[in-house]
Amino acid sequence: MEPIIDIPKSNKYDPKSDEESYDLVLKIDSVLGIKDGWSISYPYSEHYERTAQNPGGIFGPIKSLVAPSTEQMLEIKRRLLSDLKENKRKAIVCALGLYNKGKSYVLSRLFGLNLKSSYYHHTEGLSVISSRSTMSNVLIGLDTKGSQKPVKTPNAEKIRDSEATERFLQELALHLSDVVLIVVDRLTRDDQSYIKQYSLIPGKNASNIIIVHNLSHVRTIEHLESVIADEVVELFNAQKSENTICKCSYWTNKDDGTRHVVIAQDEHRMDGKSDSRAGQITNGPTFLLLKEWIQSVAAIQKESGDLLNTIVSCSNDLIKYYIDKPNLMLCKSADDRKIIISPSFKGETLSYYSNIRFNMVGIVEVNNTQPSRVEEDSTHFHIYVDCTGYDLDDLVTTITEIRNTKEIKIVSQNPRSFTSSDSDTGRKIVHDDFKFSQNKLMEWSFIFPTIVVETSSSKDIHFEHNNGILYIRLTKRGDGQRIKFVKTTSA
User: Fold this and answer.
1) Residue 36: CB atoms within 10 Å
2) Whole-angstrom Cα distance, residue 80 to residue 251?
3) What is the per-residue burial (b if ≥16 Cβ within 10 Å, else e) of 342-376?
4) What's the helix, strand, coil split of the chain in %, to 5?
5) pTM for the whole thing?
6) d(CA 302, CA 293)
7) Are the beta carbons of 282 and 264 closer than 8 angstroms?
């Protein structure tokens, strides 16, 4: 029996080492590309097989004498891919954030691998790290395509497709992850909006949301302290704490409990310039603290199953909210090289819901027929929907559970009518400039970023219908309130 060849595991980041590849890449250039299948590749195992058996360079002929045999190579590939399938107690951490913020760099430091990361290299789709690191024993890393990446030769259709694909990938990563690292550089309003919208997603523990301030251009302690005071303490109402084991500072948002850590310019200088003093003092302890936090989450995780099957399952949960194709189901191809539609179909066109709308972290509306506005304050959502031509008695409102949150839906039981009726003020003061009778039934929905109370009592839900505008006020669920079962309320 041939000896087993071990692949060394890294525990320390070294930017001078050769660049590493991801273990799995799910390439989703477009959600609509599922018609032909989303490709799956295994870059590291393919690279290892190619270079181990055919080493290049001046010493290539000598190295080839000790290259793994075919049987050994098959065993190595099996063990590499088993890290994606074995039932081990592993947490999943994902790096999210806007375009060009340093997500791949942060994961490189966490896993001690020199993943491709630079201003000129960008992550494709959903990229997975599951081997070659001591952290891989308890952790799987997900790297994501950044948000708001520019579109080549843009038009409305391309921009819409790019936006939908970015949101789908983010929602997929969120569904898969136990810990979320939101990576920012110098803070912008877009970063603030992104963090705010993500923190409102129900079902995510605030203590498992970590904001990583990757201050890649800050080199001095003086500048670092200035940025922390302005962009962490003041803007996020964050209080400083010390971890005595890691000898590292971190900050906790007093309002929502999210934690913030700060790293400076990389301390490993390779361009001949002077070292980053801020990076030398801050970066090592900060990544040590992040590892400690993430490992504590991994310690309480249940056994993980086949990651690829989990990705397919989550994709099935999400894609029905993007593509206007009822009962669309996905599965793996027989060779695990694609995610495809099952059963396959040809000659049909896939399209997004016509009125799908997004915020920065996911879908907020799908296929609404009515103009509307949704506002919120600290305790309520305020909804205004154009219901011109509908009686209040014609409208039915339901609140249902959907994707770990709640969706409100308003539909009409009868078509729009402009006949004056003294019994309903919602249709009493109305103008019909085009003398047009619309026979289509009304349908409007909204997915809440925060759980709402499900009750018809005047304390928690309030309806008004005046001059064709339906106003609904819904109470947000407080921390002490239990999520209730679905109820249906007729407006």
Assistant:
1) 12
2) 37
3) eeeeeeeebebbeebebbbbbbbbbebbbebebee
4) 25, 25, 45
5) 0.72
6) 17
7) yes
457: CB partners within 8 A, 6+ apart: none
From its phi and psi, is residue 475 left (phi > 0), alpha (psi between -120 and 50) or beta?
A: beta
Q: Which residue has the tokens 């994606």?
A: 84
Q: Using DSSP, how many helices (H) and how many strands (E) does the chain show?
A: 9, 22
CA atoms within 13 A on the CB side of 468: 16
Q: What sign does the CA torsion over 432, 434, 436, 438 have?
A: negative
Helices (H), 208-276: 221-227
Cα–Cα distance for residue pair 127/20, rounded to 1 Å: 12
Cα–Cα distance for residue pair 105/156, rounded to 1 Å: 32
Cα(386)–Cα(200) distance, integer angstroms: 26
H-state helical runs in 372-488: none
Tens-level pLDDT at each residue, the chain (491 residues): 445 555 666 667 767 777 788 888 999 999 999 999 999 998 887 777 776 555 554 444 444 444 556 666 666 666 666 667 666 667 889 998 888 888 989 998 998 888 865 544 556 789 998 877 878 877 888 888 776 677 777 788 888 888 889 889 988 988 888 899 999 998 888 888 778 777 766 556 777 889 999 999 999 999 999 999 999 999 999 999 999 999 999 999 988 888 999 999 988 765 546 678 999 999 999 999 999 998 888 777 666 668 888 899 999 988 888 888 878 899 999 988 999 998 877 777 888 877 677 766 666 555 566 677 777 777 777 888 888 778 778 888 887 776 556 778 888 877 777 655 555 444 443 444 444 444 567 788 877 755 555 544 445 567 888 877 888 888 776 544 433 333 333 33
Compute φ and ψ for 285, nearest 5 degrees. Answer: -60, -35
> What are the backbone dihedrals phi and psi of residue 46, each rounded to the nearest 5 degrees, phi first?
-70, -40
With beta carbons less than 8 A apart as the criterion, state whether 317 and 401 touch.
no
What are the phi and psi torsion angles at 241 (to 5°)?
-135, 165
3-state secondary structure of 419: coil
How many Å is the maximal CA-CA distance in the chain? Answer: 95
Query: Which amino acid is located at 199 in the chain?
Result: S
Distance between CA atoms of residues 336 and 16, nearest Å = 34
Task: Please state, in angstroms and rounded to a whole number, the distance separating the CA atoms of residues 84 and 82.
Answer: 5
- Phi and psi at residue 406, in whole multiples of 5°? -125, 145
Local structure of 33: helix, strand or coil: helix
Of the candidates 359, 329, 333, 357, which has an alpha carbon nearest to the alpha carbon of residue 345?
329
Is residue 82 a contact partner of residue 68, using CB atoms and an 8 Å limit? no
317 conformational bin, left if phi > 0, alpha if psi -120 to 50, beta if neither: alpha
Length of the chain in residues, anyone?
Answer: 491
221, exposed or middle or buried, with CB in 10 Å at 0-12, 13-18, 19+? Answer: middle
